[in-house]
Structures are given as C-alpha cells and as structure tokens.
Specification:
By secondary structure, the protein is mainly alpha-helical. The protein has 7 helices and no strands. It is globular. The termini are far apart. The model is unreliable at about 95-105 (pLDDT under 50).
Length: about 110
C-alpha cells in the first residue's frame, strides 16, 4: 500500500523530471543529426554508430561534447562540426551557402 509519509522524501522539487532531464544543446543537436542523417535515434544505437561507449554519450548529455568528439561525431554523421558545436550554419556537412550556386568557382 502507498504511504504518503514513507514516500514524502522523494516527492519534492529535486526529483521532478524538469530538474533531472537537462541535456546539453550540443548533444541535442547530435541526436537531431543522427535521426535526420542516419535514421538512428536510440542512445545505444547512436553510441554504436559513433564508436563510443554509452557512458561517454551520457557524459556528453550533461557536459557537452569534447572538441575531438565534435570532429569525430561530425565525420561519422556527415554533419557540420560548426553546426554541431554552436548550431550555426547548416546541419549537413555538404551543404553550400545559398549564393554559392551563382559563384563560378563552384
């Protein structure tokens, strides 16, 4: 039987989902790119795809991705390292700026 008194220690604001589940923006972008570019979305599948441990991926969720991890991940997913790091530019690595089609060099 559920006893309110016995469970009152776990019924506070420290254990609400909003305070527990905060993911670093870089890792949100990583999951977005894995889903869009590699049709992979489960954390364990993403870790396998990147050749990293699930624990490393879990660490990235709270701390962000290391510099070498950004480069390795961008290469494995085919996304832009700049986009993965900061959200700037296009997700896909092979995307060209809109005015590049008018440039005779391209």
């Amino acid at each position: 039987m559920f006893k309110q008194e016995a469970n009152s220690l776990c019924n506070n604001t420290l254990f609400k989902s909003g305070t527990i589940t905060r993911m670093h923006e870089q890792t949100k972008r990583l999951y977005e790119a894995a889903k869009a570019l590699r049709a992979t979305q489960e954390p364990s599948a993403v870790a396998r795809l990147l050749g990293i441990s699930p624990q490393t991926l879990k660490n990235w969720e709270s701390r962000g991705i290391s510099n070498s991890g950004i480069l390795d991940t961008a290469g494995a997913l085919g996304c832009s390292a700049l986009w993965l790091r900061s959200g700037e530019g296009e997700m896909a690595a092979d995307s060209q700026p809109a005015d590049a089609s008018n440039d005779p060099k391209h």
